[in-house]
């Protein structure tokens, strides 16, 4: 909600909320110190170690340098110091960038992504590299607060043990990616590896964080003010991904608005880094017979840092200044240390990203949701060429395209803090059809069953059953954070009482086009296991409630009806298991385990 309508903090103790936006190419930090009785204020870290002479910088490169021993030698703003590249070359340091993309869902097999992600350092995992960078961001936040607040060092010592972290991630990331990020936070020693420690980490998608930034910055007021039933599309164009999110005002209560997500959020790997990837492909071919081919990395780097950002008109010749006046190669369009490019060629480097945005917006039924505005945020939206092309194309369809005048680089991190302070999204759309595999009694009269007769199995109770996909949440369902999805048809059965002390309930998803998924053999490629709900022996209080049954052919077995309860409406999935003990419902906390081979 906007700062002027935000209520004072009602807690009794001072707290620090620290939001970390680890982008593919650039990262940012925002925070809020919660004082009892005071209206919270969102602030950003605007000065970083090694950039002490630069004030107001809100983003730093998501880059690390490792030495041959695997130790971090430079990170973030430190990688921009004068002479750092020469030092790295002399010392044999390894530059690591775009490492965030190594955590992306396995379902993304786009060739332009997989073939262009730089490798990780030898012996390091994506989680360990992320942990190193999170540790660096943590130190940057610490240094800034200690320096800019009265009695900053004492203030940090008081707040540090209970910091609440809000960490952003692309729209398309699921529970497995969140678990990897949380593991990195633990590895960075920012929280203890305990349930209470884990609870101090909250996740929010970059799209939803951007919506909260738009609300916080006043974009949803004045001429842009939305009425109940009207909607907005938020396009977060970042370094690696372009996130598309659509929301509609579901409730208007004075100046306070509540939104609902109206379509499944999308995540496309067509961020600004792929403009540079396209430029590299073009330049490599242009320089294939030139002595300057060996300078390709440097030329692309100069394009990325200067030419790409300044590009505005496709009818103007563009230049990449990379060398001295003695550097000339007419056949390669190089003169006086500058490589000349036609504006139309540079425009082509942007084309896949622009088409991605336009196609994604075109697929949304804007009339159905009262959408008349598209808000463009994220570092890539600073490109005037991208903004102009998107604005002109969507304007012709009656959509007004806006972008914040200031601090578009801070949209995600500032929005993440705002999200923590007061959530404005009341419901989210299920991305997949979520469900479980369960055994149903085999029926010879059912043709679907007969077709799968060879797949039936003999259950513990002696009956023949078939594995069936039972939908818990259909794809596209609007889910509130408070919504609990339960299944009371699950029966926990063991052959010998006490032999199995762990209950495991796999949660699966279907992301195909079948509206009523039921049998996994109909579309096997589109079923996947998301995670497993696990209740370990320390929580199996229901064991005394197991009722004894006897089957003539298989003998004694034990069973108890269980209800497992899953919440999909929050930004992170949560689960519990419930059962009746002498007529009284009991609930057990459950652990959710993600297997990287299943996602």
TrEMBL record:
<protein>
    <recommendedName>
        <fullName>Actin-like ATPase domain-containing protein</fullName>
    </recommendedName>
</protein>
<dbReference type="InterPro" id="IPR043129">
    <property type="entry name" value="ATPase_NBD"/>
</dbReference>
């Amino acid at each position: 909600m906007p700062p002027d309508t935000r209520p004072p903090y009602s807690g009794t103790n001072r707290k620090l909320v620290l939001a970390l936006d680890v982008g593919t190419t650039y990262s940012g930090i925002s925070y809020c110190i919660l004082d009892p009785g005071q209206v919270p204020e969102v602030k950003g870290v605007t000065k970083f170690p090694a950039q002490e002479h630069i004030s107001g910088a809100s983003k730093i490169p998501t880059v690390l340098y490792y030495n041959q021993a695997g130790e971090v030698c430079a990170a973030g703003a430190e990688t921009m110091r004068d002479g750092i590249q020469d030092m790295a070359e002399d010392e044999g340091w390894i530059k690591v960038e775009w490492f965030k993309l190594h955590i992306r869902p396995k379902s993304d097999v786009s060739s332009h992504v997989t073939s262009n992600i730089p490798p990780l350092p030898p012996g390091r995992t994506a989680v360990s590299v992320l942990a190193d960078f999170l540790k660096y961001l943590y130190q940057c936040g610490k240094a800034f607060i200690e320096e800019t607040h009265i009695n900053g060092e004492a203030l940090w010592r008081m707040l540090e043990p209970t910091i609440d972290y809000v960490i952003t991630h692309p729209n398309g990331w699921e529970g497995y990616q969140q678990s990897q990020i949380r593991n990195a936070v633990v590895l960075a020693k920012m929280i203890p590896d305990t349930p209470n420690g884990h609870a101090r980490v909250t996740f929010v998608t970059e799209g939803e964080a951007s919506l909260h930034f738009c609300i916080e910055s006043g974009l949803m007021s004045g001429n842009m003010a939305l009425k109940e039933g009207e909607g907005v599309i938020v396009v977060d164009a970042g370094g690696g991904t372009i996130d598309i999110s659509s929301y509609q005002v579901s409730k208007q209560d004075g100046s306070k608005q509540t939104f609902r997500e109206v379509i499944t959020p999308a995540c496309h790997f067509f961020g600004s880094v792929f403009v540079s990837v396209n430029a590299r492909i073009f330049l490599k071919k242009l320089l294939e017979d030139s002595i300057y081919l060996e300078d390709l990395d440097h030329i692309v780097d100069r394009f990325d840092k200067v030419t790409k950002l300044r590009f505005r008109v496709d009818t103007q010749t563009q230049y990449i200044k990379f060398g001295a006046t003695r550097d000339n190669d007419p056949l390669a369009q190089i003169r006086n240390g500058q490589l000349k490019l036609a504006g139309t060629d540079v425009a082509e480097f942007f084309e896949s990203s622009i088409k991605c945005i336009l196609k994604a917006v075109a697929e949304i039924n804007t009339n159905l949701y009262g959408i008349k505005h598209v808000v463009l945020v994220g570092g890539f939206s600073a490109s005037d060429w991208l903004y102009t092309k998107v604005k002109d194309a969507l304007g012709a369809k009656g959509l007004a395209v806006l972008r914040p005048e200031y601090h578009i680089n801070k949209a995600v991190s500032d929005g993440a803090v705002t999200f923590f302070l007061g959530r404005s999204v009341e419901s989210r759309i299920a991305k997949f059809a979520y469900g479980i595999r369960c055994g149903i009694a085999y029926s010879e009269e059912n043709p679907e069953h007969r077709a799968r007769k060879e797949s039936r199995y003999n259950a513990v109770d002696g009956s023949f059953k078939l594995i069936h996909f039972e939908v818990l949440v259909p794809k596209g369902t609007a889910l509130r954070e408070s919504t609990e999805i339960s299944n009371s048809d699950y029966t926990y059965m063991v052959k010998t009482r006490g032999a199995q002390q762990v209950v495991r309930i796999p949660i699966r998803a279907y992301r195909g086009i079948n509206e009523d998924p039921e049998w996994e053999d109909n579309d096997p490629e589109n079923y996947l296991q998301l995670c497993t709900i696990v209740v370990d022996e320390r929580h199996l209080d229901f064991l005394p409630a197991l009722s004894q049954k006897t089957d003539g052919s298989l003998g004694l077995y034990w069973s108890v009806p269980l209800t497992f309860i899953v919440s999909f409406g929050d930004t992170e999935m949560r689960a519990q298991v419930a059962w009746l003990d002498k007529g009284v419902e009991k609930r057990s906390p459950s652990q959710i385990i993600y297997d990287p081979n299943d996602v």
